[in-house]
Amino acid sequence: MKSFKKVMAGMLMGIMVIGMLTGCGGDPVADDFEKFLNTDMVDVNANYDKIKEESAKWGDLETNEEIKDSINNGIMPNIDDSLDKLSKIKPETDEVKAIKEKYVKVMEAYKEGYTKMLEACDTNDEQTVTEATEKIDEGIKLLDDYNNALESLAKEKDMKIEY
């Protein structure tokens, strides 16, 4: 009878240890996602706020030179810094890697659009302005896709995103 109790106690102890190990282990995707949002993207998001602030000033700009100055000194440095920071972010899970790549595409579209806008300022070509605007608008659409992906993964992982 004693050996039966020892066997049962050993089995129960083994089950408890297995339960504790699986219970203590976090969801690697949720952990990676939380790190991505709360640590990795902090400076990148701050850069995006600066880009928005700078582009909001465009309604008050009157010359192509002022627009070029805004792009060269306000917008492009923040885009370039964001792309540099993004290149150093190394998510561990495929889900978070895919989300990061969506944001890289946002910044690449913006970079292409604002570079095109610089060209338009030099040439005064309406077609180039249109192409630049379309590329920037594509970046905005890609940003919506990125935000939707964030919301979707947060919902899947029962997490909340605060803006």
From TrEMBL:
<protein>
    <recommendedName>
        <fullName>Lipoprotein</fullName>
    </recommendedName>
</protein>
